[in-house]
Amino acid sequence: MPAPKQESNSFIDILNNVWWRVDAALDTEMIYWSAMLGATEALMSGTTCIIDHHESPNSIEGSLSTIAEACKVVGVRVNSCYGVTDRFDNHGQLHSKVSPLSEMTEAAKRGLAECDRYLSAGGNGMVGVHAAFTCSDETLTAAAELANKHSVGVHIHVAEGVDDIQAGARLESLAQDDWLLIHAVHLDRPLKGRIVHNARSNMNNAVGYAKPTERSNKILLGTDGIGANMNEEARIAYARLREFDVSAKPTTVWQWLENSLELFPDAKHDVVTFDYDYADSPWHAAFTTNMNATDVQIAGEKVLVNGQPTRVDLLEVRAKANEQALRLYERLR
After folding, report:
1. Backbone φ, ψ for residue 119 (5° rounding)
2. Is residue 4 part of a domain?
3. pLDDT value at position 3?
4. pTM of this prediction?
5. Which of 140, 165, 173, 286 has a CA 20 to 30 Å removed from the CA of 187?
6. Domain of 84, in residue numbers
7. What is the total count of domains within the chain?
């Protein structure tokens, strides 16, 4: 990937110089093969369910179905949403700043429409919101109302950095128990919903430690898109927790993993075989690196055998994803 033209010295710089540029450059083919590769790598690490928060402001319509189809081909479950935001105008260009009093942009309306279309068609998902600081109050309210319409939660990044410090105050009257509150590093008050802790992502973006054990919310464990190996994520989260509290036990972090099953109850019957006899023991797994999935059964079907996916050709998926990555990189130049 071509390096940003400007150095990133803050969280907002990283968003502006890297992630938001990537979002704006995506098209349907890139989305499909990115999802296909991500789903395949998740499966190969023993992860059978993906909670996805997607954004592609110049390729919104149909994007959630594209992701769902790629995951279906691989054989993994997905709960998806489109992360609506007012930070892009109608031409896919970034706004310099979004005010809570701003009017909802057409781009945000299209994002909400995509969530509505996907859920109305029976798709498994939620209503997505990028983050409060990139949305007007009108957009936040509309997202909450759409979620209520479909009896699902809102999946939103909350107070990840200090730039979103007002998120708690703005969401306090909207949040519900079925919401997913991602990060909550700088959340200044209790909010309804499940908090999803992303230890490695927070470290990578230098936004601070979320102190999840100090929250009364139910905690889930996420990656924020940096990989799909949840055992590895749990080890990192445990090391970070121990740095904060030396008395912490690995069973706490592994419970965060188990809590995700509330969103995928059928996954309780999935069978994952690892090349390590004590893979189901938090005390062993917390200190065992290079623990690999060898076989996976989802809904009774063998979708990974001897470390290889059965539904897709791994080499083809990687080759196609590489083609799309090169197209993406060319656009970023």
Report:
1. -70, -40
2. no
3. 86
4. 0.95
5. 286
6. 11-332
7. 1
